[in-house]
Amino acid sequence: MLTGKQKRFLRSKAHHLNPIFQVGKGGTNDNMIKQIEEALEARELIKVSVLQNCEYDKEEIAETIVQGTNAKLVQVIGSTIILYRKSKENASLVLPR
């Protein structure tokens, strides 16, 4: 679990990021989960945008992605999901305690 302090830190780091994935009408699928996993390994912190035509609730989408990738949910704000997972190969973010 992330502490409040860690979530604040990650939100501030994610503020300037653009969403690199968009979840549309069909929701998520295995291929998308795999691509998000690869992006998390490379970047550690990403944003996912949920489009208006998505048939699923953004909270459901966030939960599906978190379960599929072992990422930590930082925040769901508006239609944007912020995810964090420490990289195995090239960890660059140091979380406050």
From TrEMBL:
Coiled coil: none annotated. PROSITE patterns: CRM (PS51295). The gene is yhbY. This is Ribosome assembly RNA-binding protein YhbY. The keyword RNA-binding applies. One of its GO terms (molecular function) is RNA binding. Keywords: RNA-binding. The keyword RNA-binding applies. PANTHER family: RNA-BINDING PROTEIN YHBY. Residues 1-96 form the CRM domain. Gene3D superfamilies: YhbY-like.
